[in-house]
């Protein structure tokens, strides 16, 4: 039932029950009865005049219809919708706008939704005018939005965050005024104050010296402190239970007097004043489990790795059951993340000569904040012996015997094998193949799928010389001046990939790709690149026949048939091509966005299984995988999609890797696993210089890749089910933040990255310079050279 209809029902039910004396209807003339009926109707409509005319559409619905009209190029319908939202909600939007002096906080955004919806509709109309070439009219509309609704924010479900309507309006004005090709001004290196502790404590702590581990591995685990004074002295200030020493620290008193500790503790997550962040988090009004995690991160940023490990381990030992909330209001378990933080630091800093063994924080019912159960094993951290240090320096890896095959996912050219050790491998022609993959979409600056200007990169030949631009004619700007010199030869992306060690590309199938088969075959023969052919399977409504506003319904028989036919078409076209590695279904469909997989996950995973069975019936030579959004609904995947051969997921958890993903997949699905997307931006906001940001991106990728490797077959401490990963992405895409001619540096969405935000237009292994030489120019970042070392060693 429509919301307004419900409200009308409530109003009628609560209408005053006035007693009216009326004559017996049998003695009334028909005329009298009709008169009284008409009188009642007139009275009703005088009380409810709005409903006598029409039911108001929600602002949500008008925005949805406006985007639809814009995509369809129906300017007349769009103008009518804008008139409607102004007439219905314009007055309230004006009042809401006048009450703000800044963006509302995340928990208050909903209170200003009507204002934002009005501004969004005006923005859609202004953009439509711009695309029609009516620049003067569009500019006036954009300026009006900026003046009237400076704090309006629109939510984009496909990107998962809010964007400033006024900011994007200004970007569009810049494009029309010829200011579109922009790169950020150089960022000055910000001062970082390193926390120097007055009472640093000892090195790594042997917790058994100061207390007892009770009920290890159960939900009743507990650490009982026996020698608190000794433990406090060993830990050093600020690490639980050593609380009081911080307040004696002269540095704390100085920071307090200088006003450096003012503001919310959350404001100190990404600050460059690390000493202030340390003091702030020690005294923060959060549980100790949360405080210790951010204290550990602060030490880590300061390069104080031993102290960071001590803080993380103190969290694991003392507060394994802490649950907190993410920015997205989903449950988060700091102790579980801390386990992998410690492993990461020891892995990435072999000079620490440490080993961390036996730790596991297992969460049962992790998606239910009211009924989760924590099974805790705190583990032991110890110093390596001299012999172990020598082996480490000689790079002697702790490998294990894999054993004989016990299960094959198929009998074809490409298949997965599970061995007696429980470890998994991907085989191509019966030889192990580890995925060193890349997400590849070399989008030319100025193009965007949002406005329909995106072209097929496999056919793009701007200079009309018969060669496809990005794959074969890209060149490296080694001087950084955005000009090609005689000693900067044309090499092409494929040659650069081969030089870096890439062996697989993740490419999404489109119905027009039939003519691209020869192109892909040439790529494979020339550079040896395999293709993980992906199908959206209804995500963004692709292949289902549904409109974006309607969204794919996985119970709708018409949508199901359309998707099945679309996948069948893909498989029939490419199944015999030598470069096909596997089929991948979906792209984070479990998060929703123009589909109801998030609301009906069981239905979705059952359908995925049906599609997998269909694929195998016509192509027994290549396995089928899924592309999930992290591990959400992993238990349902494991139960309802047994015919899918491997679990793939887009995962962005942090520089330390993918946490419990590998173990969770082993327990809940018993499948090989790989990461279909991972990476970080090469921009970190105003707090980081370009050099710092590039180094942070490289460090992030390295930490992620080493985690992928350490959980692959043969590594003793890992889960043994990793078969590789696909880095995101090869080159920056400038359209991701709405203005395809501007390399945006505004932070829209919080993310687990060095700068604290997604900065989604900066994820490339390569940049595109100032955009003037797109799609040819390639600006290599530090991560390129990092991968050459990691993937070719």
Question: How would you characterize the overall build of this protein?
Answer:
- The protein is an alpha/beta fold and 793 residues long.
- The chain contains 25 helices and 25 strands.
- The strands form 8 sheets. Strands 15-17-18-19-20-21-22-23 form an 8-stranded parallel β-barrel. Strands 11-12-13-14 form a 4-stranded antiparallel beta sheet, with no helix packed on it.
- The protein is globular, with a radius of gyration of 30 Å.
- 44% of the residues are buried.
- Residues 1-54 and 180-189 have low confidence and may be disordered.
Q: Main traits of this protein?
A:
alpha/beta, four-stranded antiparallel β-sheet, 25 helices, 25 strands, 14% strand, globular, disordered N terminus
From the N-terminal CA to the C-terminal CA, the straight-line distance is: 62 Å
Judged by helices, strands and strand pairing, the structural class is alpha/beta
Biggest beta sheet attributes: 8 strands, parallel, barrel
Unreliable sequence segments: 1-54, 180-189
Shape: globular
Mean pLDDT: 87
Beta fraction: 5-15%
User: Based on DSSP secondary structure assignment, what is the total number of beta strands?
Assistant: 25
- Helical coverage, percent range: 25-40%
Using only C-alpha atoms, the radius of gyration works out to 30 Å
């Amino acid at each position: 039932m429509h919301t307004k209809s419900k409200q009308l029902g409530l109003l009628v039910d609560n209408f005053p029950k006035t007693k009216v004396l009326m004559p017996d209807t049998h003695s009334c003339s028909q005329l009298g009865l009709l008169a009284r009926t008409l009188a009642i109707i007139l009275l009703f409509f005088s009380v409810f005049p709005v409903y006598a005319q029409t039911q108001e559409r929600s602002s949500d619905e008008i925005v949805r219809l406006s985007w639809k009209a814009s995509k369809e190029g129906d300017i007349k319908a769009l103008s009518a919708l804008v008139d409607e939202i102004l007439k219905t909600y314009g007055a309230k939007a004006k009042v809401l706008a006048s009450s703000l002096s800044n963006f509302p906080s995340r928990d208050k955004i909903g209170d200003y939704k009507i204002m934002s919806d009005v501004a969004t509709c005006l923005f859609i109309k202004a953009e439509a005018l711009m695309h029609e070439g009516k620049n003067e009219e569009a500019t006036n509309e954009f300026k009006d939005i900026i003046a009237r609704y400076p704090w309006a924010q629109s939510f984009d479900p496909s990107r998962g965050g809010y964007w400033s309507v006024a900011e994007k309006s200004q970007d569009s004005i810049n494009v029309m005024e010829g200011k579109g090709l922009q790169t950020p001004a150089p960022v000055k290196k910000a001062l970082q104050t390193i926390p120097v502790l007055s009472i640093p404590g000892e090195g790594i702590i042997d917790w058994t010296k100061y207390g007892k581990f009770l009920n290890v591995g159960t939900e009743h685990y507990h650490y009982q402190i026996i020698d608190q004074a000794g433990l406090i002295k060993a830990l050093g200030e600020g690490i639980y239970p050593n609380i009081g020493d911080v307040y004696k620290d002269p540095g704390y008193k100085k920071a307090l007097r200088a006003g450096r500790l003012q503001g919310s503790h959350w404001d100190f997550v990404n600050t460059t004043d690390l000493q202030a962040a340390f003091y702030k988090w020690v005294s923060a009004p959060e549980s100790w489990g949360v405080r210790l995690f951010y204290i550990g991160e602060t030490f880590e940023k300061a390069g104080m790795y031993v102290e960071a490990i001590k803080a993380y381990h103190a969290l694991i030992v003392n507060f394994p059951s802490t649950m907190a909330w993410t920015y997205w209001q989903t449950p988060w378990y700091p102790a579980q993340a801390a386990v992998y933080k410690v492993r990461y630091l020891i892995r990435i800093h072999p000079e620490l000569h440490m080993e961390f063994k036996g730790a596991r924080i297992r969460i049962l019912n992790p998606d239910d904040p009211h009924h989760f159960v924590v099974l805790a094993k705190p583990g032991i951290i110890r110093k390596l012996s001299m012999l172990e240090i020598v082996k480490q320096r000689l790079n002697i890896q702790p490998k294990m015997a894999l054993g004989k095959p016990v299960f094959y996912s198929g009998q074809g050219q490409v298949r997965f094998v599970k061995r007696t050790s429980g470890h998994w491998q991907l085989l191509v022609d019966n030889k192990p193949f580890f995925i060193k993959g890349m997400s590849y979409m070399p989008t030319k600056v100025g193009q965007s799928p949002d406005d329909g200007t995106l072209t097929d990169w496999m056919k793009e030949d701007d200079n009309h010389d018969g060669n496809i631009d990005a794959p074969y004619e890209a060149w490296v700007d080694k001087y950084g001046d955005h000009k090609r010199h005689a000693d900067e030869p044309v090499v092409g992306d494929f040659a650069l990939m081969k030089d870096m060690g890439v062996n697989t590309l993740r490419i999404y199938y489109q119905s027009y790709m039939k003519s691209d088969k020869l192109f892909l075959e040439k790529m494979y023969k020339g550079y040896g690149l395999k293709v993980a052919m992906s199908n959206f399977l209804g995500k963004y409504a692709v292949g289902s026949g549904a409109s974006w506003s309607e969204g794919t319904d996985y119970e709708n028989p018409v949508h199901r048939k359309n998707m099945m036919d679309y996948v069948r078409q893909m498989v029939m076209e490419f199944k015999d091509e030598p470069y096909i590695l596997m089929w991948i279904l979906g792209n984070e469909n479990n998060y929703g966005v123009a589909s109801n997989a998030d609301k009906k996950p069981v239905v979705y995973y059952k359908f995925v299984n049906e599609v997998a069975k269909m694929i195998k019936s016509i192509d027994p030579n290549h396995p089928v995988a899924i592309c999930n959004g992290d591990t959400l609904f992993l238990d349902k995947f494991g139960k309802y999609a047994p015919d899918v051969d491997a679990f793939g997921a887009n995962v962005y958890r942090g520089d330390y890797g993918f946490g419990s993903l590998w173990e969770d997949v082993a327990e809940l699905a018993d499948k090989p696993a790989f990461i279909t997307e991972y990476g970080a931006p090469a921009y970190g906001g105003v707090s980081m210089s370009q050099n710092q940001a590039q180094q942070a991106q490289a460090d992030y990728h390295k930490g992620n890749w080493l985690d992928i490797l350490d959980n692959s077959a043969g590594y003793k401490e890992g889960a043994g089910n990793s078969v590789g990963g696909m880095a995101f992405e090869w080159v920056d895409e400038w359209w991701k933040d709405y203005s395809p001619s501007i390399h945006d540096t505004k932070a829209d969405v919080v993310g687990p990255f060095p700068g604290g935000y997604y900065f989604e237009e900066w994820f490339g292994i390569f940049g595109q310079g100032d955009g003037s030489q797109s799609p040819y120019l390639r600006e290599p970042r530090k991560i390129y050279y990092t991968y050459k070392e990691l993937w070719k060693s």
